[in-house]
Write a structure and sequence with these properties.
Helix content of chain A: under 10%
Oligomer: heterodimer
Low-confidence stretches of chain B: none
Order of helices and strands of chain A: EEEEEEEEEEE
Order of helices and strands of chain B: EEEEEEEEEEE
Shape of chain B: globular
Largest sheet of chain A: 7 strands, mixed
Distance between the termini of chain B: 35 Å
Radius of gyration of chain A: 13 Å
Structural class of chain A: mainly beta
Low-confidence stretches of chain A: none
Number of strands of chain A: 11
Number of helices of chain A: 0
Radius of gyration of chain B: 13 Å
Largest sheet of chain B: 7 strands, mixed
Mean pLDDT of chain B: 97
Strand content of chain A: over 45%
Number of strands of chain B: 11
Structural class of chain B: mainly beta
Distance between the termini of chain A: 39 Å
Helix content of chain B: under 10%
Number of helices of chain B: 0
Shape of chain A: globular
Chain lengths: 120, 107
């Protein structure tokens, strides 16, 4: 069974960089036909896809965030990470990491989510 | 981007009822359409993938249909644990997009 766990600061100051890590167990982040994704959800609102990284290292980003986002993989640690720069209050949300089952597949496994608040 | 529009945005129903939620895409997603259930404070959980395939472990009272731009999620004989928010999601093209959600409440 694949398990994912987000970690990182719960509070980030405006204009700074949000950094989160997702630790994966039960699957390899660098083998298989999986995408490792980040999704966020502001309080009381819907889901927004941020981007994903394939096991080969290829990356897709949401164009609405592309200029500020970097997603990377750390294979030895079985982790993948999200960096979102120049944050504002609009980036306050619960951030989820998830595993997609391959091209055009759904997100089968999700982390529990972590709340990140952008505030001075 | 493909815009996903769900209707209704909210719905009240009783235990035992049959409910249908609709999802319309702004352009074709073929059958790359997935449905998720989310309960308060929890991550979404996939119910239906590929428009009509039931995810393992999901009760058979959940079903999905449709192709192209119009899709439905049907829940027959609502159970207390089914009261939640439901999202459709297209996985056909980047960026992946979700519907705005349908909140299903107890009447």
């Amino acid at each position: 069974q694949v398990q994912l766990q987000e970690s990182g600061p719960g509070l980030v100051k405006p204009s700074q960089t949000l950094s989160l890590t997702c630790t994966v167990s039960g699957a390899s982040v660098s083998t298989g036909t999986y995408y490792w994704s980040w999704i966020r959800q502001p309080a009381g609102k819907g889901l927004e896809w941020i981007g994903r990284i394939y096991t080969s290292g290829s990356i897709n980003y949401n164009p609405s965030l592309k200029s500020r986002v970097i997603i990377s993989i750390d294979t030895p640690k079985s982790q993948f990470s999200l960096r979102l720069s120049s944050v504002t209050a609009a980036d306050t949300a619960v951030y989820y990491c998830a595993r997609e089952g391959g091209y055009s597949n759904p997100m089968y496994d999700w982390g529990q989510g972590t709340l990140v608040t952008v505030s001075s | 981007d493909i815009q996903m529009t769900q209707s209704p945005s909210s719905l009240s129903a009783s235990v035992g009822d049959r409910v249908t939620i609709t999802c319309r895409a702004s352009q074709t997603t073929l059958t790359y359409l997935n449905w998720y259930q989310q309960k308060p404070g929890k991550a979404p959980k996939v119910l239906i993938y590929g428009a009509s395939s039931l995810q393992s472990g999901v009760p058979s009272r959940f079903s999905g249909s449709g192709s192209g731009t119009d899709f439905t999620l049907t829940i027959t004989s609502l159970q207390p644990e089914d009261f939640a928010t439901y999202y459709c999601q297209q996985s056909y093209t980047i960026p992946i997009t979700f519907g705005q959600g349908t909140r299903l409440d107890i009447k």
